[in-house]
Each structure stands twice: as structure tokens, then as C-alpha cells.
Specification:
Layout: E1 5-14, E2 32-41, E3 44-50, H1 51-61, E4 64-67, E5 73-76, E6 78-80, H2 92-99, H3 104-109, H4 114-123, H5 126-142, E7 145-151, H6 158-174, E8 178-186, H7 196-213, E9 219-223, H8 231-243, E10 247-252, H9 259-266, E11 270-273, H10 279-286, E12 291-294, H11 296-302, H12 309-314, E13 319-321, H13 335-346, H14 350-356, H15 359-364, E14 381-384, H16 390-394, E15 403-406, E16 409-413
Parallel strand pairs: 1-4, 1-5, 6-7, 7-8, 8-9, 9-10, 10-11, 11-12, 12-13
Antiparallel strand pairs: 1-2, 2-3, 5-14, 14-15, 15-16
């Protein structure tokens, strides 16, 4: 394997370097390298600059070349920091009911919703979960995402939560897409428990110790809402998880408020959803270090308002955008398309949208080693067959990447 490789030339390299983690961004703040190249080595970016100058250095030092003979714009590869990518079956029946007028709550009470996915995931073998997750992982990678968070939460008991985590690990070991597992055993109270408090105690004593001891994940999530777990129940659960050494993230403010306030109180890495957030929650998030993670796929899947992304940015929050790919409320799974549509309705700049699916999303996962094209960052890169970076969002996700690199290795090409 060559020690160093020069990749290029690119019509433009949009580095996303030297931008703040929080607050609104103007496109004028974007650093664009015209006719540029990138030198990579040992999985990292070693140098970014004008291609002609880098070519001279590469020839002098005997570097390898990966030459591009077509127009291309280079960006940091995308980070999808909230997904439910591992599941059995689908919920097309739920979707048909929803577009016919049934509410999320009505579908859940009728035996659909998360309970339906729990049943189908429990029935699926680990091999079946691996096969379906592998297919989705390839789709995600082909769309320019190289780091993807994946939650459990369709097992809701120790054997099936472990089955999901084993499937996630197996796919991660054989696929170029980097998967970040998160324990969402506290997704909803399973039918075999009649008391939500008792179930959360079960997770604390029977599931989390195993996950910690066997290093399955260092992240814990909980769905805080009127259809799942109350703030009063979630607080001690999360405090216990935090004391065990887990990082926290919270499904917050999707249908009712309270979750984002708890996320800020406990210093969670992110508060995710936020469709129901009011001015009070928006200001709390802006004053905190908790990332405001908005999920336009859930709004599109449920037919509800988008989270207040514009307001969050304007008061100084760290805004990330994720796909929420799941079999029920967000079946699309296309991060770039969702981000582009959110940007239209919330009036986000190119800089704000692209930051929200690269380095700001990576920060929500505690991964500040990617999401920017800069020295010593991971060489996770995506190229689009275009000449102007502004065309990426202009085409609203219909233009797909021509190449994707993970840690400097080409992992997708058309």
C-alpha cells in the first residue's frame, strides 16, 4: 500500500475548515480551493492545496497518483448521526394508514408503530439482520456517508438487543461504512412489561452492565415523550447510565417538550428531533454544548412540521442534520435529499446545511477527527460530478456522488 497518494485534480475543494461549531453561517465564510488536490497517507489528510503545486511535490517524492479525468467537486464525506438502520421487516402498512389520515399515536395504539418493528426484529435471525443491514449500509455509502450511527431499540430484551449489536458489529467489520452503535433499549416499554419504571430498572441492571463489560457500545439513548418515557422516569435512568460511563443522547421534543431540557441538564451529546421545541427549548440548547439534532426524514415521513432549524442557528445553537432512517416514521433514509429539502423550507445557507451533515454532525458523536478537509483529519471524502459546489443542494440530492473515500481508500465509484 503506497505511503502517500495525491488525489485530483478537482474543480473545487470545499474544505469546511475554520468554521465555528455553533451558530449561523454565511456562504462567504466557506473556503474553496479551485483546481485543487489532496495528499493522503495512513488514512489521514496530509495536505490540501492547488493541484499543480502538489503534483510537483508528488513527482519529486515518488507519491502515488489517483488522477481524475472528469469534472468533480470534493467535500468531506457526510456523517449521519442518528439512524435506526438495523431492523426486521418494514412498516408499509403503517405508512398507508398514516397517509390515509391515522395519527402516529393511533397507529401505535392499534399495535403498529415501534411494537410492530420489535416483533419483526425479534423474529429475524442475526443472519437476516446482517444481510438487510449490509444492503442499507451500501446504499448509505453510495450517497456519500462514511460514518453512520445505528441504534438498537427493536429488541427490547437482552438477547435481541445483543442480536442487533452483533449484526451491527459484523457489518462494520466487513463494510467500508463506519457504524457507531447506540443502545436504545429505552425506545418504548415492551408489551411484556406493564410498568415503564420497572422496564427501565431492568435495562439498568440487566442490559447496560453487559454492554459495558463486553464493549458493545459507549452510547445510551432514550425516547422521552408522552408516548414513551417521561422526563421523571428518564432522568434517573440517564444518570445511572452516565455513572456507568456511557455518553448520552436523547430522543427529545418530537411530540411534546421536556426531553431537550433534560438533555441540556445532563450534558447529553445531542438532543434529537426537536419538532415540538418552543422558544424556551431553543434558547436552552443554544446556551449549552448539546448538539441540536434535527431529523427532516421524520417530518417528511409523518407529515409534520420541520424542527426549527433556522431559529436554532440564529440564537447560536450547534445544528446537526440526520436522516433518522427507520422502518416507521422515516423510511426514506436519504440524508442529502432530506437536508436539501430542510434547507429550502428553513432558509438554510449552503454552509449551514453542509456543516450540519459533516463536522457538526461528527461533533455530536464525539468524533472531531473528521468532517473537514484539513491536515491530520481522516481522509473521509466524497466527490460529486459537478463544477460548482452550489449545485449539490441545488439538485436536492438527485445528483449522486461519483466517488467516495474512507480513510483515503476509494470505497465507491461510478
Amino acid at each position: 500500500m503506497p505511503n502517500k497518494t495525491l488525489i485530483g485534480p478537482f474543480n473545487q475543494i470545499l474544505t469546511l475548515a475554520n468554521l465555528p461549531l455553533k451558530g449561523a453561517l454565511r456562504d462567504q465564510q466557506l473556503e474553496v480551493v479551485n483546481t485543487g488536490g489532496v495528499i493522503v497517507g495512513n488514512g489521514k489528510i496530509l495536505k490540501v492545496g492547488y493541484y499543480a503545486l502538489l503534483e510537483t511535490e508528488a513527482l519529486r517524492n515518488g507519491y502515488e497518483f489517483q488522477r481524475l479525468n472528469h469534472p468533480a467537486v470534493l467535500l468531506p464525506a457526510f456523517v449521519d448521526a442518528h439512524t435506526h438502520l438495523c431492523f426486521g421487516g418494514n412498516r408499509s402498512r403503517d405508512y398507508a394508514l398514516r397517509i390515509a389520515g391515522a395519527s402516529y399515536e393511533e397507529i401505535l395504539q392499534a399495535g403498529g408503530g415501534i411494537h410492530d418493528s420489535v416483533l419483526k426484529t425479534r423474529q429475524a435471525s442475526q443472519k437476516e439482520l446482517v444481510e438487510s443491514l449490509s444492503l442499507r449500509a451500501h446504499q448509505v455509502l453510495s450517497r456519500g456517508v462514511t460514518t453512520c450511527e445505528v441504534k438498537t431499540g427493536y429488541g427490547l430484551d437482552l438477547p435481541n438487543e445483543l442480536k442487533m449489536l452483533k449484526a451491527i458489529r459484523e457489518v462494520a467489520q466487513h463494510d467500508a461504512l463506519e457504524l457507531v452503535p447506540t443502545c436504545l433499549s429505552a425506545h418504548i416499554c415492551p408489551k411484556e412489561f406493564t410498568d415503564s419504571s420497572e422496564y427501565l430498572t431492568f435495562i439498568i441492571h440487566e442490559i447496560l452492565p453487559v454492554l459495558k463489560a463486553e464493549h458493545w457500545t459507549n452510547r445510551v439513548d432514550i425516547f422521552v415523550d408522552k408516548n414513551a418515557f417521561s422526563v421523571e422516569l428518564a432522568r434517573p435512568f440517564l444518570q445511572n447510565a452516565q455513572e456507568m460511563g456511557f455518553d448520552l443522547t436523547i430522543h427529545a421534543d418530537q411530540f411534546s417538550t421536556g426531553g431537550s431540557r433534560l438533555a441540556v441538564e445532563l450534558g447529553a451529546r445531542s438532543a434529537d428531533h426537536l419538532e415540538a421545541s418552543t422558544e424556551t427549548e431553543i434558547k436552552l440548547l443554544a446556551k449549552s454544548n448539546t448538539v441540536a439534532m434535527v431529523l427532516p426524514g421524520a417530518s417528511l415521513g409523518l407529515g409534520i412540521d420541520f424542527a426549527p432549524a433556522r431559529q436554532l442557528l440564529d440564537v447560536g445553537a450547534n445544528l446537526a442534520i440526520a436522516s433518522d432512517w427507520n422502518p416507521g416514521s422515516a423510511p426514506m433514509g436519504d440524508l442529502l435529499t432530506q437536508a436539501a429539502l430542510l434547507g429550502v423550507y428553513q432558509k438554510l445557507t449552503n454552509a449551514e446545511t453542509l456543516a450540519a451533515i459533516t463536522f457538526r454532525a461528527a461533533h455530536a458523536l464525539g468524533m472531531n477527527d473528521r468532517g473537514v478537509i484539513g491536515e491530520d483529519k481522516y481522509a473521509d471524502l466524497v466527490a460529486f460530478p459537478l463544477t460548482d459546489y452550489r449545485e449539490i443542494l441545488y439538485y436536492q440530492g438527485s445528483i449522486r456522488p461519483s466517488k467516495v473515500w474512507k480513510k483515503g481508500k476509494e470505497v465507491f465509484s461510478v
